[in-house]
Write a structure and sequence with these properties.
This protein is an alpha/beta fold. It has 23 helices and 25 strands.
């Protein structure tokens, strides 16, 4: 709910207004409180001054009244005669005449003569007498506390005509006096005695009885908070010691009432403002969010690729956003079409690509029989190297145009890869027509003002209607292309059973790495017999594969697949480890042999090969002479410089090296003088029929003489009978291997054969 733009917009507006309202209210109410406090203080100060003036005027009036009494003849006569009873009666009578509640008569030295109304001690009246003597005036006034009462005392001299005494009359600070002052100041008055508010005793007050107990907790004006308490109180000391105080109380009710009324009005105004703000915010949010919601739905439809009419919004920025989204929808559609076209077509030729073929071919197969024609430019890399990539691209464009012109009604023409095109045709294509088509498509191309003919390989596959699937069809035409590239005419048609052969190859490639670890692959050893010494001191290690489902797999088959797939290095590494481990085991048994392992071209190109072999020999504590390596001259042709460098390192390590299948390559003599090898092995093609074929015998003899002239040993492979053995001995061959002596054997069988050969070798060498 709060995630919607409308809710957040409403909350934002209300939050801002509420903040401003609270801030203004707080400021206004605070100002009212401060103003009320200032007014209350001012009123209290004025009333306090009135209170002080009232007490001063009362003291003056009391002083006049006491002087009148002191000037009375009868009073002076009584004082002069010192008649105690008369003095007491006179003091009482004259005091009652002016409402004095206490009268005191003192000698001229300040000693107490008599008092009426309440017992007074000398100490209580002595300070007033001292003030009178020091002031030099005809009267003095002060507030004193006598007994449990406070009195406003006035003292005047009694003269007849000389000073004969002093008379002091006290007027009680009682509730009546407090009410009189209240009538003047409009303040409640309390008279208290004591230091501090906690120990003060209440003498008189105009406050109601229920407020008496709170007098000690009332704040002074210095800590005033007008609206927090009912009364505003200030203290006035009445005597010099500050023990008698007057508490002036000002009621805060008028200010509280004014404040409450103002607060109620402000709350009403703020409430009305918030209500109007809510309505305004809702209306504003709706006017903004409803178009945005429509635009959001429109944008979501654009994101989902749906066609939806844009909302009719023409106002301000939202209308501009609507127009922008509409334009964006149009641009997205155009880009989608471009992207879709680019994803399904070749950017160079404009033909369909493999993705579009795989997408549309299933639908085409379900309707009618089709003929797939795969066209591949043979050695296209040489065209790019010779003429440049720009001319190579031009050549591809010209070939694509020729395919379009040659098959105007084709269901699909596609470029599957760099130099490979696919034709999907509903009309029949006959294998007999392919040579003419090949000639039409491959001749007379124009490149950089030159004419060029191409070598095109054509592969044909007919797909019956409603049979097979697109992946099978593409795979089969690719299989046919493999056979086309291998044929002389570069033309082939898919034949039943070729797919099964392809599936077999895929199975072998998948299972080859697993078989190296599972024991389905193993090593056999074929002895190599020295004709001069008539001993078998060396052997050749050969790999064998007994597949659990396919049975025995010929080495030529899986070695070729391993070389093409890049797995040959794993096979070689496994083979070397197995042979070196077996050599170490035989050496522990007292059998010392030199075993040869075949290396492929990929192995010889690895600069790490010498180091790996050295590490394995050191690990098993074998001399380098225990291992021999055989390489074909075709492997040397891959990279002669790198291969020869690795062979030199291996020879320096002490490993024997041999050229295998000598005589079957095209550059045997050219490289023989450069290769750092010890031995030449004549291929079995020249050995198996040597006893019947004079040319084979001549080739073997010539090769042996050439090799011996270069200081190399010669080994003949494929000896199968005694007659051939005699021819090989006559040709000067050094070593022989073949089925005549033994077929390749497992390690245990080879050890047993070696024992028998050492004991009965003469039976293999009858006198010839």
């Amino acid at each position: 709910m709060l995630d919607s733009l409308r809710s957040r917009l409403i909350l934002l507006l209300l939050g801002m207004l509420a903040f401003m309202t609270v801030a203004m209210g707080y400021a206004a109410l605070g100002a009212m409180q401060r103003d009320s406090a200032a007014q209350a203080r001012q009123a209290l100060d004025v009333a306090s001054r009135v209170f002080q003036e009232a007490l001063s005027n009362r003291a003056t009036q009391l002083g006049n009244s006491v002087r009148l009494v002191a000037s009375d003849f009868g009073f002076r006569q009584a004082v002069a005669l010192r008649e105690q009873d008369t003095i007491a009666s006179v003091l009482e009578n004259h005091g009652s005449r002016i409402d004095a509640t206490l009268t005191v008569l003192l000698t001229t030295q300040g000693d107490l003569i008599a008092s009426s109304g309440q017992q007074v001690s000398q100490a209580q009246i002595s300070q007033l007498f001292k003030d009178m003597r020091l002031s030099g005036q005809d009267s003095v006034s002060d507030i004193v506390h006598i007994g449990d009462q406070a009195y406003q005392m006035v003292m005047v001299p009694v003269k007849a005509p000389q000073l004969i005494a002093w008379v002091a009359m006290g007027f009680s600070l009682d509730t009546a006096l407090a009410n009189q002052i209240k009538a003047l100041t409009d303040l409640d008055i309390s008279f208290v005695f004591g230091s501090g508010t906690t120990n003060a005793a209440l003498l008189a007050t105009t406050l109601p009885d229920d407020v008496h107990d709170t007098l000690t907790s009332m704040s002074s004006d210095k800590q005033l908070a007008v609206l927090d308490q009912p009364l505003l109180t200030t203290q006035k000391a009445l005597d010099r010691a500050g023990t008698i105080q007057a508490l002036l109380h000002l009621s805060t009710a008028p200010w509280q009432e004014t404040y409450l009324q103002a607060r109620a009005q402000l709350l009403a105004i703020f409430g009305l403002g918030l209500t109007l703000a809510v309505l305004f915010a809702v209306a504003l949010a709706r006017s903004i969010t409803e178009p945005l919601q429509l635009l959001t739905q429109f944008a979501r439809a654009i994101g989902l690729g749906q066609s939806l009419q844009p909302p009719a919004i023409k106002r301000g920025e939202v209308g501009l956003l609507s127009d922008t989204l509409q334009k964006m929808q149009h641009d997205i559609r155009q880009r989608e079409q471009q992207i879709l076209f680019q994803a399904q077509h070749d950017t160079l030729t404009g033909l369909a690509n493999r993705y579009l073929v795989e997408l549309q071919l299933p639908a085409l197969l379900s309707n009618q029989p089709l003929w797939l024609l795969l066209v591949n430019i043979k050695d296209f890399k040489h065209v790019n190297d010779a003429f440049g990539y720009k001319n190579g691209d031009s050549l591809l464009e010209q070939l694509a145009l020729r395919l379009r012109n040659a098959f105007p009604v084709a269901a699909m023409i596609a470029r599957l890869g760099g130099d490979e095109f696919l034709l999907v045709n509903p009309d029949a294509l006959q294998p007999a027509d392919l040579p003419a088509l090949q000639q039409q498509l491959s001749t007379d191309f124009s490149l950089d003002n030159s004419r060029l003919n191409l070598k095109l390989a054509l592969a044909l596959y007919q797909i019956p209607a409603q049979t097979g699937n697109a992946n099978d069809a593409l795979r089969r035409v690719e299989i046919a292309m493999v056979h086309a590239k291998a044929s002389h005419q570069l033309i082939a048609e898919y034949q039943p059973g070729q797919d099964e052969s392809h599936q077999r190859e895929l199975t072998l490639l998948h299972d080859l790495p697993l078989s190296l670890q599972s024991g389905h692959m193993f090593v056999v050893y074929q002895p190599k017999v020295s004709l001069r010494q008539r001993q078998a001191g060396s052997a050749e290690a050969l790999i064998r594969w007994q597949h659990p489902q396919l049975g025995f797999v010929p080495p030529d088959e899986f070695i070729r697949l391993a070389e093409h797939s890049g797995l040959i290095s794993r096979v070689t590494d496994w083979m070397i480890v197995q042979v070196i481990s077996q050599l170490a085991s035989w050496r522990d048994q007292g059998i010392e042999l030199t075993v040869a392992v075949n290396l492929s071209a990929y192995d010889l190109l690895s600069s790490d090969l010498p180091g790996q072999i050295a590490a394995l020999l050191q690990q098993h504590q074998l001399p380098a002479s225990a291992l021999a390596l055989e390489v074909t001259e075709g492997a040397v042709m891959q990279d002669p410089q790198q291969v020869i460098q690795n062979l030199q390192i291996l020879r320096q390590m002490g490993i024997e090296l041999a050229i295998d299948d000598f005589g079957t390559g095209q550059s045997s003599l050219a490289y023989l003088k450069r290769l750092p090898v010890h031995e030449v092995k004549i291929d079995r093609a020249f050995v198996k029929d040597i006893e019947h074929n004079h040319n084979d015998a001549l080739i073997v003899q010539t090769t042996a003489e050439l090799a011996h002239g270069l200081g190399l040993l010669v080994t003949a492979e494929g000896l199968e009978n005694l007659a051939g053995l005699a021819r090989l001995q006559a040709a000067g061959i050094d070593k022989v291997q073949g089925y005549y002596f033994s077929k390749p054997l497992k390690a245990a069988d080879f050890a047993q054969w070696l024992t028998e050969f050492q004991q009965q070798h003469n039976r293999w060498f009858p006198e010839v």
